[in-house]
Amino acid sequence: MVRNIVSFMMVLVILCGVLITSDGHAFGLFGRYKSVSAVGDDVRLPVKALDDGKAHYYVYKGGQTDIKFFVVTSSDGVLRAAFDACDVCFLSKKGYSQDGEFMICNNCGMRFHSSQINMQEGGCNPAPLYRETVGEDLVIKIEDLLSGSRYF
Prior knowledge:
The chain has helices spanning 2-19, 142-146; strands spanning 33-36, 42-46, 56-62, 65-73, 79-83, 96-99, 102-105, 111-113, 132-134, 137-141. By secondary structure, it is of the alpha+beta class. It has 2 domains: 1-30; 32-151, 3-layer Sandwich (Rieske Iron-sulfur Protein). A 4-stranded mixed sheet has the order 1-3-4-5, with no helix packed on it. Strands 2-10-9 form a 3-stranded antiparallel sheet. A 3-stranded antiparallel sheet has the order 6-7-8, with no helix packed on it. It comes from Desulfofustis limnaeus.
């Protein structure tokens, strides 16, 4: 009986280790990505849930591809969106993490001020994702999301 409990605990520890990647991100039940669905031709996110200055991570199922992106309100009050990937490091599939007003590439460590997201593109900048605010929602068109499928 004790041996079975010990074996079970070892399997549980191993599974937890699989859920945590080398860059510290968790997946599965503890994942950082919230799944979003289309409403018509758009994904709509309530602005009031995004205005805290924190990066909010989402995933949209685009056919066979999970398209990952984040939204953050920069210090200048602008809602910004980008794919959780860049032109240089996307093959590593590590994305970005937030450190205050900066988004940091989890592969190469480059830092990008949040006010430059959607303004700068190419290289290791977070790949811009077109978005617009309509009433109380941040609206991202499905066709714009699908344009980033090459990163994932």
